[in-house]
Amino acid sequence: MRPNKIAVATRPTAATAAPGTSDVERIIGAFEALMHRLMASHAPELSAVDLTMSQTKGLYLILAAGQLRMSELAARLGVTSSTATGQVDRLVELGLLERHEDPADRRQVVVTATPLAESTLEQFRELNSHRMRELLGRLGDDDLAVVERTIQVLSSAIDAEASDIEPSNHITATTGSHS
């Protein structure tokens, strides 16, 4: 281990898990706590961007899709059409989104991200990358390998889900775990 690096437990122990808590629920709880701490640690930088988390999520969805009908945006956000409309109104006011009629169905409204939206989301990515570099720089080599392997496993699960294939339930020997 490198000097001045933090040793991190790679696996919660029975003593740290709440009684009756499933592995998945325990991990979700730990992930949510981590995300809360990450957000709190760079809240001043994020607040300078002047967007709510819900607005940011909408921007990410629209940017990833290229364009979305308002009804599709509402569905993906899990909100009503009127709530999505309110969010889009604010994002249009900020110059982050543009509304267009759907050429295939003029009754439908399509929203697209502006170049300003792209640069705003790039600011978020840069803030997150900077913060992750700081945190990862505090880890030793063994823990960095665990983080890297975890990212690979989660990426495989996303790929499997996208392909509608069950993810592999085994962990390779590189993590020191077994099936």
Reconstruct the topology from this structure:
Elements: H1 23-41, H2 43-47, H3 53-65, E1 67-69, H4 70-77, H5 81-93, E2 97-102, E3 105-113, H6 115-136, H7 141-163
**Total helix count?**
7
Please bin the fraction of helical residues. Answer: 55-70%
Q: What is the structural class?
A: mainly alpha
Query: Strands of the biggest beta sheet: in what spatial order?
Result: 1-3-2
Poorly predicted ranges (pLDDT <50, ≥5 residues)? 6-15, 169-179
Please name the CATH topology of the domain at 30-114: Arc Repressor Mutant, subunit A
How much of the polypeptide forms β-strand, as a percent range? 5-15%
Q: Please, what is the CATH homologous superfamily of the domain at 30-114? A: Winged helix-like DNA-binding domain superfamily/Winged helix DNA-binding domain
Our measurement of the CA-to-CA distance between the termini, rounded to an integer number of angstroms, reads: 27 Å
CA-based shape: globular
Would you identify the CATH architecture of the domain at 30-114?
Orthogonal Bundle
- Main sheet attributes: strand count, strand direction, barrel closure: 3 strands, antiparallel
Number of strands: 3
Radius of gyration: 21 Å
Overall mean pLDDT stands at 80
Order of helices and strands: HHHEHHEEHH
Under the CATH scheme, which class of the domain at 30-114?
Answer: Mainly Alpha
